[in-house]
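Record type: monomer structure entry
Structure origin: computed from sequence
Chain ID: A
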Amino acid sequence: MKEKIAAVVPAAGIGKRLGAQTNKPFACINNKPLILWTLETLEGMSEIHEIIPVLKKADITPAADLFKRHNITKVRKIASGGKERQDSVYRGLQLIDDRTCLVMIHDGVRPLIEERIIRKALREFKNCDGVVVGVPVKDTIKKTNGDVVTETLKRHALWAIQTPQIFTYASLYRAYEKAMQDAYYATDDAALVEQYGGTVRVIEGSDTNIKITVPEDISIAEILLSKRDAKR
């Protein structure tokens, strides 16, 4: 993969369910802020030329100092977050100067992302507008109307989608522009590309690529990190 890659890292969440004393991206795992775990992984990848975190306005100055202290040199711009995640990512996209690049969106609160997963997604970026990472659904999923089951979905065709999600800049920005014009909101970036005619592929990621949402997730992440360290 020879294209330049810009990584947009939405991290403007408050994290009410996490119950932290700070905004969620700055809650700590093993005394290190969540977002720093993420950025250090991206910083270490030669494929990624630019990182644009998206943060709450009040967090931008202290975050810039944090990144500087930890030598995160690929962060040269920080976007201010919007009302919804989609608004935040859109602001990050607008700060990318190279419109010929690939764009990787990765949640700042998925701190256990591994380089091998990102590289796998890049290798599979062929004949499509985007590649997303996910894991096959293990549980039986039922569709309901209220509390009445209307359909049991075929599990083999269902995926729990994560980030990273990688797109051509052109296809992603075009989808965002149209979505904003139509006031169409979705829960992930791929859904916007799909909505406006783009082709998105899914590849298998990792069950350890968890999103930190509630306090128990911090404990799980610490266990997973200790197991990862033990293998090295």
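Annotation 1: The chain has seven helices and eleven strands.
Annotation 2: The first strand starts at residue 5 and ends at 10.
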